Amino acid sequence: MNVVRHWFTQQRGYTPFDFQQQTWDAQLAGASGLVHAPTGMGKTFAVGLGPMMRWCDAHPDRQSWAALKSPPLTMLWITPLRALASDTANSLREPIEDVGLPWTLELRTGDVSSSIKARQKKRLPSVLVTTPESLSLLLSYADAKAKFAHVQSVVVDEWHELMSTKRGTQTELGLARLRRWNPAMQTWGLSATMGNLEQARDVLLGRAKAKSGVLIRGESQKAVRIETIVPDDLERFPWAGHLGLKLLPQVLDELDKVGSALLFTNTRSQAELWFAAIVKHRPNWIGEVALHHGSLDRKLRQKVEDLLREGKLRCVVCTSSLDLGVDFSPVDRVFQVGSPKGVARLMQRAGRSGHQPGAVSRVLGVPTHAFELIEFAAARVGIEGKRVESRRPLDRPIDVLVQHLVTVAAGGGFDEHALYEEVKATYAFRDLSAEQWQWAMDFVTRGGKALYAYPHYRRVAPPNGDGQYHVSSQQIAKQHRMGIGTITSDAAMIVKLARGRSLGTVEESFIARLKPGDRFLFAGQPLELIKTQNMTAYVRRATRLSGNVPRWQGGKSPLSTQLADAVRAKFDDALAERFTDDEMRAVRPLLELQRQWSRLPAADELLIESATSREGHHLFAYPFQGRLVHEGLGALLAYRLSQQAPRSITATVNDYGLELMCPEPIAMDEKAWRDVLSTDRLVEDLLACLNATELARRQFREIARVAGLIFTGYPGQSKSTRQLQASSELFYDVFAEFDADNLLLDQARREVLEEQLEVRRLKQALERIEAMRLVRVTLEQLSPLAFPLWAEHLRENHVTSEHWSDRVRAMAVALEKVADDG
DNA sequence: GACCTGCTGCGGCCTG
């Protein structure tokens, strides 16, 4: 028996799971593929031991191992997270050391010491655990080929997370490079649950291997159970709102019962508030409850992760910052506060509990308003029906290609034709046309049409006798390396204790509203602002809490299509009087009101409600397509209506529908509605109304950085957002004027349409609506579906001098009264 | 004193 397998079964005493066995067999047979494996089931060993077994088979004489010293880089492991890199290294080190393989193993991420980096500049270890960015960096050194020529297998961990991002594309390009140097190289990916695993495998393997690729599905789906805290009294439960502290007592009761828990929230400020609330009500838990989100200082987060790993925490309140990484033992209870947003997302979070094979993963939903009860019920249906979201791979992000061209030019140079073929072998650039390639080449060699006068943008020099393109100068190579990567983020303000450590970062706009002496809640503690200086807010601990919580302007993830459809189906259930779960029974009175005051929309109808309030005239429509689509749709409808007659219309959206508000009444018959809901000229109208130029301009900022047009400054002295903005705008304007066909501009527009507006989904929504009946209802009072939109509208537009909450409360009371009378 | 929506992730230089 192979010594590695022997180690696994005899020394460690493990019985391989089926998927581990299958993976090793496939790896020994020389195949590539993707493994779908639940967390905590030994996925590192599943893909990590095969290459070791292979090497042992090729070197059967153990006596000779010592003489081999450290073999060249044989196995490369790519992870999206630095924290995962060290966990993985620890797992892989075990068999290497126990078996006595002569392999060396090292990490290569941005935070390894400079001495290790210096050593790796000379020679790489036998096993290297790294990130997509660090791989790219290594590929940018002139001797890259010699260093990577012996790589026999590459493993990409958490591929589902990388695949649909530019980091994934960068990984694809790096893998294509390695495959060219060693065509027999095996590629293996690890992925959590997603809807398009086959495609994920194909993207990972690229053109050459896609046909022979294997897909191994791990353990039969682990059971996931979704439970929900159902409010005792729905009448007093909010119809809108997002904090959900209403259910705090029930959550505390649950926390009392368990030893350890993770409480996921959807936003950072929500996490801060929940953390503060828990500590306030359970003061004796101080030290056992922790907070974890992306704006906290890395050191604070690291500490929480360590304590979590050691099993010393009773509860961690977190955002998706704990979705991945941190190899801790499963917790007893997982909470999801607020909308689950997606089926896969809820499954992944549930998976943080009940790790043992056969154990059930459970998640307890904590709705923050009444309709979220339906979302949890819908997510359960989604999981049972295995209707899990897909992740869509990117199509030809030119900025990533441009960056890669300079990387490769610095990394030993390239032959143009060969590199074109290599790039086209990736899934992302499989349809790259000769013209597009030419454009990219021209852009890096001459600066394109617009920048040819600036030598600085001639980053790649044409062949000089050897047929190879090379980077123009070492200075350019150096600067390029500083900009490698595809993650861009704006500068944030550091929050620092006056005498002491940094607590994390908040947005400048938040601090700008405060004066010295004002208090706010951050990093789980009350703070008082002392002064601001150099993008740093100096604070001291305050004794009393303030309700002021930083708000970050983050992504606005919409309800996924799968979950939105499932929610829609739950309305059908209600229509058919099928109230089969606790959540639906709990919201029944609310749905009953919706039916009485308006209508429960059936699957084949689009409900349009109109109402009059002292703000003006409102139209509400409910396509159930998630907020991004509704944003596009709202803007489109407002635009088209104002084209018909001059009037000012504001649109407000949420995940279920949209509201159009106008000071004057908008009289529309069926035909008028059909016209404004038409798919004709959809993209043109969207571009016209969304001030697409402005959106594209903003999007271009990121593209310009990835493409290497903007130097963001040396580490530690990064340029301000304003500076970066100014230079990217300059490029935008120059391109728009002198190089209108610039592919980077085109990409900016594409990204706005596809990612920010989800045009594809919007178009599908409109097509569906075409086949639907339009049902129009005039409301006497706001319906339960309309109420959250109305409240959102007030919040966004500050339309009333009365305080927002007073107004909302007053309306809620009025509605309650009507409900009671009815 | 109450009210509050919006995620995550990486990398780099200089000197002797």
From TrEMBL:
It comes from Natronomicrosphaera hydrolytica. Residues 24-212 form the Helicase ATP-binding domain. This is Ligase-associated DNA damage response DEXH box helicase. Residues 247-406 form the Helicase C-terminal domain. Keywords: ATP-binding, Coiled coil, DNA damage, DNA repair, DNA-binding, Helicase, Hydrolase, Isomerase, Ligase, Nucleotide-binding. InterPro entries: ATP-dep_Helicase, DEAD/DEAH_box_helicase_dom, DEXH_lig_assoc, Helicase_ATP-bd, Helicase_C-like, Lhr-like, Lhr-like_DEAD/DEAH_assoc, Lhr_WH_dom. It comes from the Bacteria. Belongs to the Lhr helicase family. Lhr-Core subfamily. GO terms for molecular function: ligase activity. NCBIfam families: DEXH_lig_assoc. Residues 745-772 form a coiled coil. CDD domains: SF2_C_LHR.
